[in-house]
Amino acid sequence: MALSTEESGRLAALLGGQDERVTSRWTEIVTSSLRGRLSQAELRRQVQDLHRAIVATSEHGNIDLSADTAAELRAALAELSRGRARQGFSATETTISVFALKDVLAELVQEAGGPNALHDYVAFSKLVDEMGLFTFESYVRTRESLIADQAEQLLELSTPVVKLWEGVVAVPLVGTLDSARAQVVMERLLQTLVDTGSPYAIIDITGVPAVDTQVAQHILKTVVAARLMGADCIISGIRPQIAQTIVALGIEFGDIATKASLADALRHVLRLTGVETARRQPRRDV
Questions:
Q1: How far apart are the C-alpha atoms of 71 and 53, rounded to whole Å?
Q2: CB 112 within 8 A of CB 122
């Protein structure tokens, strides 16, 4: 929806002639919808930025939100959307901040009167609708980006690689192991092997609820990749239920060492490296 040169001129005159009143009234309307979740100073600054951008765009003549002349207005709307998305506001709360301009325009047009009053208000409302839609789309893009970043961070946090002993690192897996997470596990393990020069890696699946063919394939690929880096892998956390499932599915781990617990795997690696280990004897009361 584009405003004609005459309509743009009347909009610029309407909003530009009484900046303080427009800003104050617009801020007042939006405040009620945000329920005090944003300071008055911050909200007023956002409204002022939008107001200035609308007036500046109107002064160029024909307003078309997709045109180069509306770049400043699009930037102001996008900035509002990004800020609100990061602050945890909903898409509705963000878009209402733009739609509130309709109430302000209704009051101004009614006071100004004239033969074009109704026509102008309809045209201005359509422009505000388009601004609201642009704001909503910008908000959604920002939220999707934030969610993707958070998912990636959670994925990295859920796949730590820890150093257990000199030359021994471990990957304690918790939860479901899908393709995306398996790739992260492999990358982090290989990078840690390079950084530490460790010849042994333990992949602990105690926290993996179930092992199927796909999960087993992911684990085997990780083991093969580690071997190509010169490290031997031991798989720990083979509980009775998982052992039965592996046998039932006919999954073969070949010559890969498997242990019931992480402690057993570490003890096995230490024996391979020549470190003496002893099981702790239960304490007996004298």
A1: 9
A2: no
Answer whether 3's CB lies under 8 Å from 123's CB: yes
Q: Tell me the pLDDT tens digit for each residue of 150-163.
A: 776 665 556 788 88
Strand 2-3, strand 63-64: pairing: antiparallel
Neighbour-count burial for 170-195, b at 16+ CB within 10 Å, e otherwise? bbbbeeebeeebbeebbebbbebbee
Look at the alpha carbons of 52, 55, 59, 60 in this order and tell me if their dihedral is positive or negative. Answer: positive
With a CB cutoff of 8 Å and minimum separation 6, the contacts of 69 are 57, 60, 61, 62, 63
Is residue 22 helix, strand or coil?
Answer: helix
Give the burial string for 241-273 (b: 16+ CB within 10 Å, else e): ebeebbeeeebeeeebbbbeebebbbbbbbeee
pTM of this structure? 0.60
pLDDT at 52 over 50: yes
Please determine, for residue 279, whether its predicted confidence score (pLDDT) is greater than 60. Answer: no
Q: At 233, list the tokens.
A: 């892998």
Query: From its phi and psi, is residue 280 left (phi > 0), alpha (psi between -120 and 50) or beta?
Result: beta
How high is the pLDDT of residue 286? 44
Q: What is the pLDDT of residues 73-85, one digit of tens each?
A: 999 999 999 999 9
**What's at 34, amino acid-wise?**
L
